[in-house]
Amino acid sequence: MDSVKNISDTSGQPIKGTGALIVILGAAESGTGAAILAQKHGYDVFVSDSGAIADLYKSELESRGIAYEERHHSEEKILQATEVIKSPGIPEKAPLVKKLKEKGVPVISEIEFAGRYNKAKTICITGSNGKSTTTMLTYHILRNAGLNVGLAGNIGKSFARQVAEESFDWYVLEISSFMLDDMYRFRADIAVLLNITPDHLDRYDYKMENYADSKFRILQNQTEEDVFIYCEDDPETISGLQRQHVHAKAYPFSIQKELDRGAYLSNNEIIINLGTDQLFNMSITELALQGKHNIYNSMASGIVAKVLELRNESIRESMGNFKNIEHRLEHAGKISGIDFINDSKATNINSTWYALESMTTDVVLILGGVDKGNDYSMLKDLVKNKVKAIVCLGKDTKRIHDAFEDQVDVIVNTFSMKEAVEISYHLAAKGDTVLLSPACASFDLFKNYEDRGDQFKAAVRDL
Can you cite a GO biological process for this protein (predicted)? Predict the structure, then answer.
């Protein structure tokens, strides 16, 4: 396809004309990758970031002769764009995005743009919780089986950069709802929907149905040749499916019931049956990832592996030796018989629920940050049964106190990670676990969840 003369807009209609201007809003990994791919295909490229651009990306844009601006948006130029590639972090309600849409300028995601030039097959994984772990596990299984596979989306190098510079047969992509909102013609060869639980509702008019519909965009454009993998036990997924027309071959997974096709649990063994003669089974005690939530993640990855007809021995080996991603239930040390677990990536209630569900000792829980309208009620039973003290970390802790004052005897406020870790250490006893699983965004005291997790690990080392 001639990328300059025939660009597809969000309605699927071609945009005619030469000298097409692609504007990219946001100059981090996603935006820089999109700029590299757009330049490769002959577009006039302009990158605009309302904040400061990191030196790494700035030097890369300069070395390639790609025009950019930082700390502001030149609206007049941006509004002249043929098409805009938007960072997932910029909301639809941003004034500049509204102006672009009012003018009829297509606004798309980096994934959508890269998909036009991608020749590899794609495995796209979304869900409110577990998508990073499942994406990494799936990539690990495929790579260990010898497939020529890339990893992108919310993880590592951007999809667009890799499409421009690499040559893979498969990609495993972690896809957020924000990315899906700006994807229109992209098609997943294998789509995985892990679960749908309340998250980012401020971006969806505080309506769960809007958020769920965003997640189901993972299905768009799929055909009978494609595959859709989903959780049979997740009520929001099952409810949302009533509003969908699924064309792809569907494989559910469940730990609550036996299924004719898909994955299920029987006598503490994962069974995968895709309707063929070749079955897969593995004891959950042999999984590298423990906890109920990780059984779901392993089932989803296992179905992908069997769809690709990988050998059972290879799948078992990979599921047994996988090491989880940083900041997700990461062991940060053991001091005086007290385990310290870094789950800083838990930025919503459900992630913290999964973390607590996997704990087998008494817990001192470090909780708090930027509250996105959290409903803490779903944590109350777990907190009552497993948590001996809560250490609040952040500027706004009133809702945490209100939610748990009847469940735990000790709730302490702290205003730095060092203070939170020191107090948690003194509140814990030998055999306990200090768990950082904040259930909130990190932006009040930290740059991001990685910074929060790194500070936690540093504070543990300093004890």
Answer: cell division
